[in-house]
Amino acid sequence: MWVVSSFCFGRTKILNCTASTTSRSFFYSKSSIPTSSRTKSIVQLSVKIEHPTKFGIAEVDGCSYKGANESDERSEPPPWWEKMLEGIRKMMTSYSKNAPVDSMGSDEASDTLPPKERRFAILASTCLSSQTKGHVTQGATERLRLNGLLTADAINKADEEIIKKLIYPVGFYTRKASNLKKIAEICLMKYDGDIPNSVEELLLLPGVGPKIAYLVMILGWNNVQGICVDTHVHRICNRLGWVSRVGTKQKTSTPEETRKALQRWLPREEWAPINPLLVHFGGTICTPLRPRCGNCSISDLCPSAFTETSKPSSNSNKSGPKKRLQ
Q1: Got the DSSP string for 164-179?
Q2: pLDDT tens digit string along 242-256?
Q3: Catalytic amino acids?
Q4: Contacts for 208-212 with beta carbons within 8 Å, 24 or more apart?
Q5: By the 8 A CB rule, do 28 and 53 touch?
Q6: How confident is the prediction for the chain on average, in pLDDT?
Q7: Between 274-284 and 81-95, two packed helices, what is the crossing angle to 10 degrees?
C-alpha cells in the first residue's frame, strides 16, 4: 500500500521511502534530521509497500491507486544489481546525516489543501523544477503560494508578468510562466481545475515531458505508471551498466531510452524510490564530473569505476578509507 504524506513547498524536504519486507529506509524526513542536512526536493512522499511483488489498493485524495501497467517486454537484470542497490542505499543513509546541502526556511504550505488544489500545486511546482536547483524551485513555489497563485483559476486570472517576477530565477522562467498560464487554462476547460490523470494526457500539456508526467502521476495521483528518469538517473544507470540500447551493449542516449530499458527488468516496487535514491547518489558521490569513486562502496562492482577520475589513488586518500560492502 502507498501512503502519501506531508505536502510541502516552503521548506527543504526529501523523499522518505520504505520498501519491501525488510522496511529499508532510503531517506529521512524533516523531523528525523537537522535542517542543514536535508536533501533538496519539492515534496515529501512517504511510501510503504506491504507486498513487494504486488501493489495493493489505497485511497489517496479520493482516488484509488491503480498500479503500474505491466510490460510484455522483459529483459534479464544486470549482474549484482541488488548488491549495488543495497550499497547505494547504505551510502545515502549514512551520507544524509552529514551532507551539506542548501536549505531555506519559510512557512510550510498547508497539508490540508483540497485534493484538486493539491494536485495542481504539485504539477505547477514540478514544472518549475525542470533544469532548476531545488532551493530555487522551492523559493519560486513559495512565492506563488504566498500570493495565492497555486490554483488553476488564480494562475489563469493572473498577469503573466507577475508570474514571471514571482518565479524568477528558475531556469527558463519566461517560458515557464507562459506554460503555467496555458496549463491553467487547459485544466480549467478540460478538467474543472484539476489535472489530467493519465501520462498520455499530461504529456499533452505545454512544458510537460516524460520525467514530469511520471513524477506527477506518482505524487499527484499515487499511480506508478513508470520510472521518473532525469539526468542523474540516466547517467548513473549507464555507469553501473544497468541499461543499454535494445539488442546492443551500447549505452542509452536519452533519459527516455533509459526509462524504457530500466523498466524491462527493474522490479516494479523499485520504480518510485529509484529516482530519489539515485538523484541523491548522483548529487553527492556519482557526480557528473569527477565522480568520487574512491569514496564509493560499490566501486568494485561498477564497470565504470575510476574511468572518469584521473588520479583515483589521490582522490581516495583525500576522501579517507574506502568502505566496502560486507
Answers
A1: HHHHTTSTTHHHHHHH
A2: 999 988 989 999 999
A3: 211
A4: 208/123, 208/127, 208/183, 209/130, 210/255, 210/256, 210/259, 211/130, 211/255, 212/126, 212/127, 212/130
A5: no
A6: 77
A7: 60
